[in-house]
Amino acid sequence: MNINIELSPTEKILSHEEVLKYIPHRYPFLMIDKVKVDSSCPIKAVGYKCVSGNENFFQGHFPGAPIMPGVLIVEAMAQTSCVMFLSKPQMQDKLAYFMSIDKVKFRIPVKPGDLLELHVEIIKNGGKRGKMKGEAYVDGKLTTEAEFMFIIVDRQ
């Protein structure tokens, strides 16, 4: 699936290869394909996931009526947030870890063939710790929302 994304002059798309430079996740646990960041608005980003019927989790969730597990949608939001933070030059050699997940709501199932848009935004930034709000959309419809906290640590 080709992702067509309109960009403003201050926005850029971090390709799949660039995403791999910033976060340690790899197949089968890499949950995002691309991330749009905006230098004029460094507190927001949009991640993209082309949901394929070949994903290994569809083998058991659920045979005959496959849907993407909600916890993996929340993970995709978190990975988008990590790329947003860790793509900044001052964040080289850092990792981000979940601290908490709150206010999660699953509204519409995500199915094979869907393009998942993951909108994340900082709602509290305390330097190495922060709180994010995430919303996932398919075809402009809200599928999942959550708030989560993170901590930035040195990569060892």
Can you put this structure into words, describing what you see?
The protein is α+β, with helices and mostly antiparallel strands and 156 residues long. Helices cover 15% and strands 41% of the residues. A seven-stranded antiparallel sheet has the order 1-2-3-5-6-7-4. A hairpin with a 3-residue loop joins β5 and β6. The longest helix has 17 residues, at 70-86. It is globular. The model has no long low-confidence stretch (mean pLDDT 93).
Overall shape: globular
Strand order of the largest sheet: 1-2-3-5-6-7-4
Strand content: 35-45%
Q: How much helix is in the residues?
A: 10-25%
Counting H and I runs of at least 4 residues, what is the number of helices?
2
* First-residue to last-residue Cα separation: 36 Å
| Oligomerization category of the chains in this entry | single chain
Mind describing the biggest β-sheet? 7 strands, antiparallel
Instruction: Write down the secondary-structure element order.
Output: EHEEHEEEE
Low-confidence stretches: none
What does the radius of gyration come to?
15 Å
Mean pLDDT: 93
> In terms of structural class, how would the helical and strand content be classed?
alpha+beta
In total, how many beta strands? 7
List the helices and strands and how they pair.
Layout: E1 11-14, H1 16-22, E2 34-38, E3 44-50, H2 70-86, E4 94-106, E5 115-125, E6 129-138, E7 141-154
Antiparallel strand pairs: 1-2, 2-3, 3-5, 4-7, 5-6, 6-7
